[in-house]
Amino acid sequence: MASNKERIEQLEAGIGSIHDNVSCIEMGMADKFQQLETTLHCLMETVSISREEVVGSTGGRRRDSHHSGRAENSTPMFQSKFAKLEFPRFAAGDPTMWLTKVKQFFDYQETPGTQKVQYAAYHLEDEANEWWQATKRAYAEEEAEITWEVFEEELWARFGPTECEDFDEALSKIKQAGTFRDYQREFERLVNKVQGWTQKALVGTFMGGLHPAIADGIRMFRPKSLKEAISLARMKDEQLQRQRRTQPNTPQIQRNTQQNSKGPLTTKRLSWEEIRKKRSLGLCFSCDERYTPGHKCRQPQLLLMEGESGWESSEMEEPLVEQEPEISLYALAGWSESRTMRIYAQIGQHQLVALIDSGSTHNFISEKMATML
C-alpha cells in the first residue's frame, strides 16, 4: 500500500496538472475575447461609414418630383431611429394638433428639412390627400418648390380655422367661468395659437382671468413665468377644494308658510260667566258640543280666559351680587361648562376636596397638599 507521503505527492501532481489546464483555458478565452472585440470594432466602423454614405447621398439628392411621378412610389428616404414610433395621420378637420405632433416627431427624429414635406404628405388620407395631389400639381405647373413652410401655410389655409376668430383677442379677454381645469385647458389652447406674446404678458393675462379667490392667494408670490403661475394656481385651487369638503353643511331652517287646510284659526274670548255656564251644562269650552272624555273640536280655536278682577304682575328683581372672577380648570381647557363632581376625601389625618371628571385625561394635585403628604 502507498504511504501517506506518496499520496500527498500524487495529489500535488494532480493539482499541478489541473492548474496548467486552467491556465491554458484562460489564455484561450483571452484570445477569443480579443478576436470578438476586434470583430465588433470593425463592424462598428463599417456601420458608421455606411450611415455617412447614406446621409451624404440623400442630402445631395435633388428633388425631381415636378418632372416624374416616381417620388410617391419609391422607398422613403427618411430612416426612422425607432421603428415603433408611429407618425400621425391626417384626413380632415382642424390641423392644429396634427401639425404640433408632426413637428415633435421631426424634432425628435432630427428629420432634414428636405424630407419633411414628402414624409408628411405620405401620411395624408382621404380629403387631405386629394388636396395634396391638387396642390402639388399646381406648384409643378408653375415650377415652384414646396418647402415645409409653404406646405404648412397651404395646409393651414385649406383646413385651418377661419380668420373670424381672433385668438389674440380671445386670449386677452379670457375669464374663469367654471373649474380651474377648464380654464387652464382653454388658456393653453389659445396660447398655442398665438405668437409674439412674452412671458410677462402671458402671466398677467393668466392671473387676470383667474377666479378672485385663486388670484388673490397667489398674487403675493409674483410668479415670473407661466409655468410657475399655473403651478401656484393649481395648489391654491386644491386648497380651496379641500376647505369646501371639510366645511360642515349647516342645515337651513325652512319655515312652513302653508296654511292649515281646515281654514284659519279663530280666537274666542270667554268670560268667567261663560266658563261657569259651560261647566254647569257640561259643554266644551271651545265649541258648544257636549264634552266627553276624548272629545275633539271640529274646528280648532284659540281661547282667551279673562278674570273678573285684574291683577298687576310685579316683577321681583333679585339683587345682583358681584363675584370675583376666578379661572377654573375647564375654562382653561376650553370647555363650555363644568363637568366635574366635587367630593370630600380623607387621606390619613388630612381632609381633601377632590374633583372627579370622567372625561379628563390628566390628574392634578395642589403643590401645598403634595408637600404635606
Description:
With 373 residues, this protein is mainly alpha-helical. Among the domains are: 96-159, no CATH class; 167-245. 50% of the residues lie in helices and 6% in strands. The protein has helices at 4-60, 96-109, 113-122, 126-141, 148-159, 167-172, 180-191, 199-209, 212-218, 226-246, 272-281, 329-332, 367-372; strands at 266-270, 301-305, 341-347, 350-356. The strands form two sheets. It has a two-stranded parallel sheet with strand order 1-2. The protein has a two-stranded antiparallel ribbon with strand order 3-4. Helix 9 crosses helix 10. Mean pLDDT is 75; it is low at 60-78, 310-318 and 331-337. Residues 108-256 form the Ty3 transposon capsid-like protein domain. This is Ty3 transposon capsid-like protein domain-containing protein. Residues 246-255 have a biased composition (Low complexity). It holds the Pfam family Ty3_capsid.
Parts with pLDDT < 50 across at least 5 consecutive residues: 60-78, 310-318, 331-337
Helix amount? 40-55%
The SSE string, one letter per element, is: HHHHHHHHHHEHEHEEH
Counting helices, strands and paired strands, the structural category is: mainly alpha
**Alpha plus pi helix count:** 13
How much of the sequence lies in strands comes to: 5-15%
Oligomer status: single chain
- What's the main sheet like? 2 strands, parallel
Q: End-to-end span in angstroms?
A: 96 Å
Count the E strands. Answer: 4
- Give the strand order of the largest sheet, numbering strands 1, 2, ... along the chain: 1-2
Please tell me how large the radius of gyration is: 49 Å
The general outline is flat
